[in-house]
Amino acid sequence: MSKLYRFGVSLEKALIDSFDNHIKTLQYNNRSEAIRDLIRNELIQKKWKEGGKVAGAIVMTYDHHKRDLASKIIDIQHHFHDLIISTQHVHLDHDNCMEIIAVKGHSEEMEKLCSSLKALVGVNHVDLSISGTGD
Ligand code: NI
After folding, report:
1. 88 CA to middle of ligand 1, Å?
2. CA of residue 99 to ligand 1 center, whole Å
């Protein structure tokens, strides 16, 4: 871990009380941990908006019985092979599949991949969660 710096922040009492209640429900042990996560999240969102490199997970569900859908999904994944790190397929039940696609790359390409998957008939839901790459 890099060197820690301390700094003071002045806030209205009502705001800090609300924040303390909020982070208590999120099970943070102290304000520093909560503020660190807020800052990291803000920087990841900034990186995303500016087209920087981020890591992410796409979770999608689709109709197992839809003709040719699985092969169309695989074709799209091959097209985005530079972006995709790994995929996990889960047979949710008799009719539904879930796929978790780990990705690392630039936001514009991730949005293209998600849009391509969403546009397929038989895909029920596609969601992307992003995180930092550790860089
Ligand atoms: Ni399946």
Report:
1. 10
2. 8
Cα 85 to averaged position of ligand 1 atoms, centre (Å): 20
Query: How many domains does the chain fold into?
Result: 2
Same domain, 81 and 111: yes
Q: Ligand 1 centroid to 124 CA: how many Å? A: 14
pLDDT (tens digit, 9 = 90+) per residue, 3-25?
A: 989 999 999 999 999 999 999 99
- Co-location of 96 and 30 in the same domain: no
Length of the chain measured in residues: 135
24: in domain? yes
Per-residue pLDDT reduced to its tens digit, 73-122:
999 999 999 999 999 999 999 999 999 999 999 999 999 999 999 999 99
Q: Are the C-beta atoms of 106 and 51 separated by less than 8 Å? A: yes
- From the CA of 108, how far away is ligand 1's center (Å)? 28
Ligand 1 centroid to residue 93 C-alpha, Å: 8
Domain that holds residue 80: 53-131
Give me the DSSP letters along 61-123.
EEETTSTTHHHHHHHHHHHTTTTEEEEEEEE-SSSEEEEEEEEEEEHHHHHHHHHHHHTSTTE
CATH of the domain at 113: 3.30.70.1150
